Amino acid sequence: MKDYAREENGAKIIMATSVDDRFPPEHMLDGKDSSFWMTTGMFPQEFVLALENPTNVSKITTLSMNVKKLAVEKSEKENSGSFEKVFEVELASRGDRLQTEVHQVSIRAKYLKFTLLSGHCENAAVNRISVVGEPVGS
Amino acid sequence: MKITDYTAVLRSKVAVCGNATVGKSALVSMYTSQGQKFPKTYSMTMGVDIILAQVPVPDTTILVELFLYDTAGYDVAKDTLAPNWDGIYYAILVYDVSSQESFESCKEWLEELKKARLDRERPLKAVLVATKSDLPAQRHQVSNDVAEVWANANGMEFFAVSSAPPGLNVEAPFTAIGKAIHKNYEEKLTAYQDACQNY
């Protein structure tokens, strides 16, 4: 199955609330678990993932460190200002080890907004996101 | 440095505590206005004022944004403050050199702040600031030496400042807190990088 949250598949991060040039949000789309986007202090933190085309999404996976509460919202249309909640989840603390969160969903999305509502420590990190599904109309 | 030259912006909440009229708001105002705004008349802070202060970390391209929780210094307000300190691990404790009582109160403020921590394992990083250092020597009730000894014994750096224009040493406590936040961030980064090497 194709991972639509990869840079080579046309995905982009169009907004992120934390900036450290050494750990840019694009690190979440490079397919590697070893690189990450770092949040630089305080919560909530957000980023918006734009898929290349509207997609029927069946699975959303996040790999992160020290995230406590995570919410995911979606928007179907090209130019829509509003988002609808997909899921919200509380992640257990694993110290400085990876948290893997897999959610089976059945949604159509062009944009996905990830909100880190709280963390297990001051700075959380997101190593990778993966969005699996089918192109709309297939 | 221009804002676009910074390569990272770190953010953190910082409590500003101390008795009423020691000059907490004046200190904050002088720092955030780069010496341009000293409040000429007294204005009592009710509850909490939240002020953003930008601190460049020396010798880096990193900017720290302090969300200063400038709290009311009156005793009656003390109980209502703790909820605002939710998740605060940095503080600027302020006393007035001409008031022994305000120095003694810093000990209480420190305890209150420690109690308010969400994670009791995590140390509170604070600095101690003596304001009104420009007052003539005969009006000083607290000696800098005594204050510095107490500060160091509690893991704090000590700064004697004067907020009255042109201002003396006003940047130092903010820079110290900014550096501490930066250090904490870099340590976390290194820990994450080490942890991720094997993935």
UniProtKB/TrEMBL annotation, chain A:
SUPFAM superfamilies: Galactose-binding domain-like. It comes from the Eukaryota. Residues 16-128 form the F5/8 type C domain. InterPro entries: FA58C (IPR000421), Galactose-bd-like_sf (IPR008979), IFT25 (IPR033558). PANTHER family: INTRAFLAGELLAR TRANSPORT PROTEIN 25 HOMOLOG (PTHR33906). This is Intraflagellar transport complex 25-27. It comes from Dunaliella salina.
Automatic annotation (TrEMBL), chain B:
This is Small rab-related GTPase. The keyword Nucleotide-binding applies. Keywords: Nucleotide-binding. It holds the Pfam family Ras. SMART domains: RAB (SM00175), RAS (SM00173), RHO (SM00174). PROSITE patterns: RAB. It comes from the Eukaryota.
